[in-house]
Amino acid sequence: MKENRFNLIDEPWIPVVGKGKVGLKDIFADESISALGGNPVEKIAVFKLLLAIAQSAITPKDETEWKSLGVKGLQERVSCYLDKWYDSFWLYGEKPFLQMPAIEKADVKSFGTVEMHVATGNTTVVTQIQTEKNDYSDAEKALLVLKLMGFAFGGKKTDNSVVLSKGYVGKSNEKGKPASGKSGPSLGFMGFLHSFFLVKSVIGSVYLNLFTHETECLKHLLKGFGKAPWELMPNGEDDEIAKALKDSYIGRLVPLNRFVLLEANGLHYSEGISHSGYNDGVADPSVAVDLSGSKPKAIWTDPEKRPWRQLTSLLAFIDSNGKNSFECMQLKSVYERLIEMDSFSVWSGGVRVSSNAGEQYLTGTDDFVESETQLSSSAFTESTIFFSNLSEQMSDLESISKSVYAAINRYYADLKVDGKDFAAKASNQYWQQCEGVFQRIVDTCSIENTDQYNQEMEKINAQIWQFVKQIYNQYCPNQSARQLEAWAKNFPKKFEKKRLS
Predict the structure, then answer these.
(1) Taking a C-beta distance cutoff of 8 angstroms, is the pair 362, 354 a contact?
(2) Distance separating alpha carbons of residues 303 and 481, to the nearest angstrom
(3) I want to staple 348 with a disulfide (CB 3.0 to 4.6 A). Which of 27, 106, 201, 307 is the partner?
């Protein structure tokens, strides 16, 4: 009998801010734990696990029951749940957490082979963090297994010659040979952007994002909330348990998209349960999708367009008369709870990936991205003009960005030089500068007094105008006579904001 070792409930493995690593028991019990640590993908994967545990411990009937539960009630229910299922959280043993002992016939891959940021094979190593290492700690292995469940790269790294469900052809190509593995459902083709409302503690954030049996966005799931995979693991890719996981919310939070089994220096690695994607009308609630057109759309992670710039799309549900059709059901389903809360934030993050011939990887322009914007409850009251103000300000920022790009492009055109690269870099720098004042813009958009709103926005716009002048002067020198003429001719016109009346 294999020894049970490293229990995820007690052992420290989850990175958190200010405390290093903690176990599941601590993260649910300690309200002083303010935020998760690690990169954005690790934060999303862990938060989804915490939600799956919370939903398994207690799923409120409706909003009334959710409110009466409270954070303390959730902590009590989760504590009892973790005690009951303690033996299901061993990383090693006869029933290792989220692992499939039956997949041991699959090839063993090194840990670096399946890590997003590690360069293996003939990939060029640019920074030390990309270097493959062999001495993974048990905590790192636990986190890696969890990430692979939803965020695995698609490609040939999976050994799909091993099929556990008899007659299952989902891991074979048209010729009947092992196919490349599909990308994880939480990752998608280019890297989905995930969003959540957060409060001042991790346990508080889990409580805030807890769904009830009346949550509208789950109506399409035939199995409802379902059963957590650690309570009842499937025996294959397509047995009845696997099918139930595909059609349940908890099965989507921890999707078992890879069947893995840890070894000392690597892991057996094959494709697991194949989930439906947004093109099929199904996506993680934390992903913003537009299913209104003939072709579904999703908001992807974009290092060139940081998440805060997507805020109006993510919060479009506030404006019932708006034209934006994107919906992030995770945000929409819980936002009414925020009206009675003093402070909270919108967190968005993910990773951008590239693909070629079915193989996913990170290029030099791909990266992890995240941003967090503080909001106040006034943003969601019926009388507020917050969303219309924010939409207008974001539109203005976009217009200024285009003006900067056009001015610099024209400057170089007058000098008979291709200035597109300079203009693009300048536009990117403009947005980086604007990020520093975006929180002020958000705070100002909640001001209902017209004079006060105008005065504050004038101050912010004056600062943005300084950004524009600085960037234009940086990219458009005026030392020679020709340069000076082009500089003066194309200098951006000051953006004059119309005052509200």
Answers:
(1) yes
(2) 38
(3) 307
69 is written with which tokens? 């539960």
CA distance 357 to 155: 8
User: C-alpha angle with apex 314: 427 to 364, nearest 5 degrees?
Assistant: 45
To 10 degrees, what angle do helices 40-57 and 63-84 make? 100
Q: Is the pTM of this model over 0.90?
A: yes
Q: Two tokens at 209?
A: 């994002």
Burial category of 128 from C-beta neighbours within 10 Å (exposed 0-12, middle 13-18, buried 19 and up): exposed
Nearest-angstrom CA–CA distance, 329 and 309: 19
Mean pLDDT for the stretch of residues 178-204? 96
Structure tokens at 31: 């309200």
DSSP label at residue 411: H
Handedness of CA 323, 333, 335, 206 (dihedral sign): negative
Give the span between the Cα atoms of 84 and 87, in whole angstroms: 8
Instruction: Please provide the DSSP assignment of 483-495 as one string.
Output: HHHHHHHHPPPPP
Express as a percent the part of the chain with pLDDT over 70. Answer: 94
At residue 12's C-alpha, the angle toward residues 9 and 15, to 5°, is 115
* Structure tokens given for 206: 């889990």
> How far apart are alpha carbons 181 and 211 in whole angstroms?
31
Report how far residue 14's alpha carbon sits from residue 441's, in angstroms, rounded to the nearest whole number.
34
For tokens 């934060």, the residue is 43
